[in-house]
Each structure stands twice: as structure tokens, then as C-alpha cells.
Amino acid sequence: MKKAKLLMLGQMMAVIALLIFSETLCAQKKSNNTDYIVFMNGDSLYGKISSVTDSKLSWRDGDTQMDFFPDQVFRVYQNSKSKIFAPSYIETGLEKVKNTKPQIFRINKEKSEELRFAELIQDGEIMVYYFKSSGLAVGGGTSGPILGFTTTKYWCALKRSSGEIIELNDVVKDILGNDVKQRAKALSALIEDEPTILKQFQLERKYSYELFLNYIKKYNEARLSKENGGGIVSERMIY
């Protein structure tokens, strides 16, 4: 009788363990395969990100659809497209710091028109943003000036602790190689507080955006390990 009870108890425990394991797998699958939003208070919302523009994101879950705006959101994880977005002043508030060479930029929030969503290529102490800016352009034609809109693409690295920003990539300018060397000097200044990584970087002889991004990842991993993984994400600051 005791053996039968023990056998039944063991079977029940096995079923409970299996149910817990299945629920964990389902939660992981949902987290890994579903788009989701993290709000400024830390709450999360899972569903499908329909679209992300400069000024808003559209979210839906079944028949429910809602729009959210940059001042409401901390991070947008669009797993279906392997992209992350964050609210930032970088697109509208970027300005040059005078008398810096290589050129350093910073964000002037007073100058900025509004918060906008920008794609976040790398998150950490050094954040890498990608965004596009469109503006009116004047060109020449056989019949006179031609007006039109042009779109410029930007890849910028922002260091949280100093607020310094450097231009990380320019597809057109870097073809000649001169600008890419200046970017390497600027990046060296950003990572100088990690001497081991800086020394490795200074041994490189060929530069590219991919190389810069790789060293920023190394730098962020080193900083994160020193902060025990908590400081950067918990701040929920907007840059």
C-alpha cells in the first residue's frame, strides 16, 4: 500500500515537473519569437509590431491595436525583423562641439524639436544609433534649378557617461579612406577607459564600420561585467 502511494506521488510529481517545464518553454518561445515593448516603468507588452516610424509605433495582439509614442517607450524589440528601437533626441538635437578634431557631437535637448524613434544597433555604455534624415535639396538641370528631397543615413555612437557622440559610418565619404581614419581616432577616445581593448584596436590597420561595431561590442561587454549587469538597463534614460 505504501509502495503504491509512493508510486502515485512520484507520478504526480513528474506530471507537475513536466507542466512547469512546458510552461517555461512556452514563455521562452513567446519571448524569443514575439515582438514586444518595454515601457519606461518596466512593464512589457507582447504582440506584433505593425510598424515603427519616427513619431510612433503601431502594435496589435489579435483584434486589439494600439499606437504608442516615443515618450511612452523605453525599448521596442521587433524580433520579427531582428531590430531594436529606442526613443532619442539624436535625430533632431545633434550639434557639433566646437574646436574638436576629430569632430565630436553632442545632443542639445533644447534645440531638439521632439523625441523620435531611432534604430538601436548596439546598446550599452556606448550606444550605436541608425537613423535617416530627409530634407529639401536643390540640384541643377538643363532647364534650371530642380527642387527635391534627399535622405541622408547616419550611424552614430553615443557614450552615455560623457554624452560624446561620433559619426561611425558614412558610406560615401569613407570610400576614399580619409574620413574612416578620423573615425578610428574618435572611437579610440571613446574606448580609452578600457586600455586592453584600446590597445587591441590600435593594432588594427584596416578600418570599417563592422570593425568599429565589433570593438564597441567588446567594450560594452567589458563595462557590463564591471557593473554586474545592472546599471545600464535599470537607468531607463533617454539620450
CA gyration radius, whole angstroms: 24 Å
Give the helix tally.
Answer: 6
The SSE string, one letter per element, is HEEEEEEHEEEEEEHHHH
β-strand amount: 35-45%
The coarse silhouette is: globular
Tell how many strands the DSSP assignment holds. Answer: 12
How would you summarize this macromolecular structure in one to three sentences?
The chain is an alpha+beta fold and 239 residues long. It contains 6 helices and 12 strands.
Folded structure, characterized:
The chain is α+β, with helices and mostly antiparallel strands and 239 residues long. It contains six helices and twelve strands. It has helices at residues 2-33, 90-93, 178-190, 195-202, 209-226, 231-235; strands at residues 35-39, 44-52, 57-61, 64-68, 73-78, 83-88, 94-96, 105-107, 116-122, 126-141, 144-159, 165-169. The strands form two sheets. It has a ten-stranded antiparallel β-sheet. A two-stranded antiparallel sheet has the order 7-8.
Structural descriptors:
globular; two-stranded antiparallel sheet; 239 residues; ten-stranded antiparallel sheet; alpha+beta
How do the strands and helices of this protein lay out in sequence?
Layout: H1 2-33, E1 35-39, E2 44-52, E3 57-61, E4 64-68, E5 73-78, E6 83-88, H2 90-93, E7 94-96, E8 105-107, E9 116-122, E10 126-141, E11 144-159, E12 165-169, H3 178-190, H4 195-202, H5 209-226, H6 231-235
Antiparallel strand pairs: 1-2, 1-5, 2-3, 3-4, 5-6, 6-9, 7-8, 9-10, 10-11, 11-12
